[in-house]
Amino acid sequence: MKIILNMTKLVLSAMLITVVSLLTTWSIINLYIQSISKPLTPTSTYIPVTLNEVLTQLSQIVSNPTPAQEPEAIPVMSQVVEQSEELLFSAEELNDKKQNITAEDRMEIYSLMITKVPADQVQKISYLLEDGFTMDELIQASMILQSYLDETEYAKLIEMLMKY
After folding, report:
1. Burial 116-145 (b: 16+ CB within 10 A, else e)
2. Among 54, 42, 62, which Cα is nearest to 121's?
3. Contact indicator for 159, 102 with CB cutoff of 8 Å
4. Total domain count, the chain
5. d(Cα 87, Cα 92) in Å, to the nearest integer?
6. Using CB atoms within 10 A of its CB, is residue 113 exposed (0-12), middle (13-18) or buried (19+)?
């Protein structure tokens, strides 16, 4: 009887030690991963995604397998600008070009913009491009990008955009 009692104590203590060890290891690894990924995540544009949003998107994809068309751009903060110059590209031409960009190029463009350009400047560029753009708007957008990207990143961005 004493042997069974001692074996039970030994098994329970081994299980307790294993659980504590696993929880400690998990929490240390979790903290380490968070500390490493903290500099990689943009702080000003971080929007947490909830499980409900993910499930909603998945259900829409499953129920509608055809590619959804992207909605028209909504004027940023309800601002409307009168076009005084001739458009270089209309909103429709920009939308067509945007549809032709590959997923890989989109991710590269997105990662460059989010990691280097502040959110308010990205919003300003979006506002400039929402109704098509004129030469002045193109110059303004270019100046914004050049002030936040180094020469190689800017050249890479322009090269990717010029493909389309």
Report:
1. bbeeebbebbebbbbbbbbeebeeebeebb
2. 42
3. no
4. 1
5. 11
6. buried
Closest to 140 measured CA to CA, from 121, 160, 119, 164? 121
Tell me if 66 is assigned to some domain.
no
d(CA 62, CA 86): 43
The residue range of the domain holding 121 is 83-164
- Split the chain (164 residues) into runs of 10 and give each run's mean pLDDT: 93 94 87 77 54 62 55 47 60 80 85 85 84 81 88 85 78
- Copy the structure tokens of residue 102: 């590959």
User: Per the domain annotation, does 125 fall within a domain?
Assistant: yes
Q: How far is it, in rounded angstroms, from Cα 60 to Cα 157?
A: 32
